[in-house]
């Protein structure tokens, strides 16, 4: 059992609360427990009698799975992964993700990091672009602000000059275009910013945010990006802008379902040569069929052997939910929530 004095913490906390606050406490859960839970029985009985609040369960410490971090602060603790040991840059795929000042949704790349022949790094300076096979511009909480950030870091012109494959996701897709306008100052006080000009698109920020769980199917230009891709795409959209395609790009995919409703909405854009593409679909690399087809195209171009998609661990939230359901009094918990089954 870890040191900690859990019963003193519970009783002390409840007794320090104001009466109105205490009335809102409907149950107690003891978590991260190590050892024999039967040893806690006398203490649980004492707590329930002393406080009048039921203990809904004792949850054992659960390890061996990875919950995505909440924000970009966690990037400071992340190294470069994975890249098989003993391989040189020529024997693996080298992928860089631009570390924007307002980066968001960087868990989009966890599945890429799981590939054994991929070395993924977060790019902060021009020198780190050298030797990359793929450059990804991720989502951003403030697209126009991050365009100026790229200029300040010298990355704006360096990305324009980069000759490898480039992918933009959500805000990164918007940055790849010719221009981003924010007439309502939705994201910042910057009303308009020049884009990288690598895709013939322009984006206008809208006051209403688009948020959907989504399904999509690749269009011909999408199959140019990921030849032999099988299966539909799944992911989610969360963006403020609307992107308008020009004549020298083609749409990447077609959304077929948004928030459970059947739709036909074009998504993303692909350059004529297929070297640059963007999409609003977060989680696109979690789709094993797309990830495998896309990376195998890069492998073939580099003279590397094709590989099947690496197995990705079951959704950690599903694992955690199953663990909690096993150790909590779910009937009482659901009743407290007004969801009695």
Q: Characteristics of this structure?
A:
341 residues, alpha/beta, Rossmann fold, six-stranded mixed beta sheet, 11 helices, 2 domains, elongated
Explain what the structure shows:
With 341 residues, the chain is α/β, with parallel strands linked by helices. The protein has two domains: 1-65, no CATH class; 73-302, Rossmann fold (3-Layer(aba) Sandwich), CATH 3.40.50. Helices cover 27% and strands 29% of the residues. It contains eleven helices and 18 strands. The strands form four sheets. It has an eight-stranded mixed beta sheet. Helix 3 links the parallel strand 1 (28-33) and strand 2. Helix 1 (6-16) runs parallel beside helix 3 (41-51). The protein is elongated and about 70 Å long. The relative contact order is 0.12.
| CATH homologous group name of the largest domain | Class I glutamine amidotransferase (GATase) domain
Oligomer state equals single chain
Low-confidence stretches: none
Rounded average pLDDT:
91
Task: Spell out the blueprint of helices and strands.
Elements: H1 6-16, H2 19-22, E1 28-33, H3 41-51, E2 55-60, E3 81-82, E4 93-98, E5 103-104, H4 110-113, E6 118-123, E7 134-137, E8 139-140, H5 143-152, H6 155-161, E9 165-169, H7 171-176, E10 179-181, E11 192-194, E12 201-218, H8 220-225, E13 233-245, E14 249-250, E15 253-258, E16 261-267, E17 269-271, E18 276-279, H9 288-302, H10 316-327, H11 330-336
Helix pairs in contact: 1-3
In short:
With 341 residues, the chain is an alpha/beta fold. 27% of the residues lie in helices and 29% in strands.
